[in-house]
Amino acid sequence: MLNKKIFDYILALILLIFLVGLIISMILISTIDTKEFGLFSQKRVGLDGKIFKIYKIRTMKGIQKNTITTSSHRITKIGKFLRDYKLDEIPQLINILKGDMSFVGPRPDVIGYADELQGEDRIILTIKPGITGPAQLKYKNEEEILSSVQDPIWYNNNVLWPDKVAINKEYVKNWSFLKDINYIIKTIV
Predict the structure, then answer these.
(1) Tens digit of pLDDT for each residue in 28-46?
(2) Which residues contact residue 5 at a Cβ distance below 8 angstroms, ignoring those fewer than 6 apart?
(3) What is the per-residue DSSP string for 144-160?
(4) Angle, in degrees to the nearest 10, between helices 2-34 and 77-84
(5) Exposed/middle/buried for 49, CB within 10 Å: 0-12, 13-18, 19+?
(6) What pairing do the DSSP bridges indicate for beta strands 130-132 and 102-104?
(7) What's phi and psi for 12, nearest 5 deg?
(8) Angle of helix 2-34 relative to helix 177-188, nearest 10 degrees?
C-alpha cells in the first residue's frame, strides 16, 4: 500500500498545481451563484472511523447538510453542471494531500453509516476513503436513483447502502494497484 500512498500524494500535488486556477474560478462562480462562500466542508467518516472534513464546491443555495438526500430545488443550475461532471469534488485533492483520502477507495460517508458498521463490514474502515472506486462507479447516478423512488432514505438504507458495503468489502479484500489505476481510468472515461 506504500505505492498507493506515494502515487496519491504525487498525483494530487501535480493535479492541484494544474487545477488551482479552475478551483479558484469555481469557488468564485459558486460564491456568486449561491450567495455563500463557494468552498465548503462536511464531516465525513474516514480511515479507522475517524471523522474528517471533506472539501467540495458549493452547489446548493442554503446550508448543505450531512445527509444522503438533497433537496433538488436548492441545487443551482451551475451547481447541477458541477455535480453532473463531478467538478464539485476537485477540492478533495486537498483531502488527499492532507492524508484524509485516496484517489480510489470506498466513498467517505456521512456520519451514521460507515461509523456504525459492525463485524467484518468494518474492513471498509481499514483503508482511506476515495474520490472514486467500484461502488462510486456503479452508483454514479445515485442522486437520480434516490430522486426517482418514493422513500429515498428507506431505499438508500435497505438497497443501496448494503450493496455498496458488499462492493467495498470486495474491493478491500482484493485490492491491487493495477485495479486502482483501472478505476481511475473508468472514472475519467
Answers:
(1) 999 999 999 999 999 999 9
(2) 102
(3) HHHHTSS-HHHHIIIII
(4) 160
(5) middle
(6) parallel
(7) -65, -40
(8) 20
